[in-house]
Amino acid sequence: MSRYPQARFLKSADSAAGFGDDSGVEVAFAGRSNSGKSSAINAIVGRRDLARTSRTPGRTQLVNLFEIVPGRRIVDLPGYGYAKVPPAMREHWGRLMEAYFRQRESLVGLVIVVDARRGFGENDETMLRYAEARGCPVQVLLTKADKLSRNESRSILTETRARLGQRAEAQLFSAETKDGVDAAQGALEALLDRRAR
Ligand code: GTP
Ligand code: MG
After folding, report:
1. Which end of the chain, N or C, is less packed with Cβ atoms under 10 Å?
2. Which of 12, 29, 33, 34 maximizes ligand 1 atoms within 8 Å of its Cβ, making it the mutation to test the pocket?
3. Ligand 1 pocket check for 180: Cβ under 6 Å
4. What number does the ligand 1 atom closest to the CA of 52 have?
5. Ligand 1 test: best mutation among 12, 35, 39, most atoms within 8 Å of CB?
6. Residue 189 phi/psi, 5° resolution?
7. Closest Cα to atom 10 of ligand 1
8. Pairing between strand 63-69 and 8-13?
9. Could you identify the atom of ligand 1 that is nearest to the CA of residue 41?
10. CA 115 to chain centre
């Protein structure tokens, strides 16, 4: 049973002009390419293929917007850190992210999806700073936790929490085993309960 049976794909945008309706509230999901953003969204929403419907080939840098209930959205931000991305595309990503975080009135929180085996990186720091500049609280999902032993998971969680301090919350997550999905959904709901700017 889906947690959000009304969830639907709204649109993809490759520029600020395309972000669409800015009323209500939304939480953005950011993370490195291949970190597990789309899988995390699907696991939290409880729909196997929601975030994949918008998947575009050729590593197009798109902002994908989903409505989970009327007036409440999830935004799948384009991944970063992919080594082979040409400089022009990296610049486009930077402009797109700056426009998104500067303009989007309905943005109330950020989820940063981190592959637990890689840990919290420099680009993740950049996203955290974008959110801080907006006064948006941040939830860090250390995903693919199923690939780590219990001890490894515990130590990466401790390490990440120490690094983040008061700046963000962190939790373990797995789209595979669904560990941490309830906690992440609770965090998402808490973020969405905030008032827009
Ligand atoms: P891009 O949109 O391409 O940047 O990737 P993404 O961040 O949306 O990652 P996606 O959800 O597409 O997952 C990337 C790969 O990691 C896929 O092969 C997933 O099946 C796998 N994956 C995602 N989450 C998990 C997880 O919790 N555990 C395991 N074992 N694999 C996962
Ligand atoms: Mg994706």
Report:
1. N
2. 34
3. no
4. 12
5. 39
6. -60, -40
7. 36
8. antiparallel
9. 11
10. 12
Atom of ligand 1 nearest to the CA of 177: 27
pLDDT in tens, the chain (197 residues): 678 999 999 999 999 999 999 999 999 999 999 899 999 999 999 998 888 754 554 456 889 999 999 999 999 999 998 777 788 888 999 999 999 999 999 999 999 999 999 999 999 999 999 999 999 999 999 999 999 999 999 999 999 999 999 999 999 999 999 999 999 999 999 999 999 88
Residue labelled with tokens 């291949």? 34
β 72-76/63-69 pair status = antiparallel
**How far from 178 is each of 42, 172, 197, CA to CA, in Å?**
11, 10, 32
Question: H helices of the chain, where?
Answer: 37-45, 87-103, 122-134, 150-164, 181-192
> ∠ CA 39-193-37 to the nearest 5 degrees?
15
Task: Answer whether 46's CB lies under 8 Å from 5's CB.
Answer: no
Look up residue 131 and give its amino acid.
Answer: A
Which candidate, 102, 99, 95, 62, places its Cα nearest to that of 79?
62
Determine which residue's CA is closest to atom 30 belonging to ligand 1.
Answer: 144
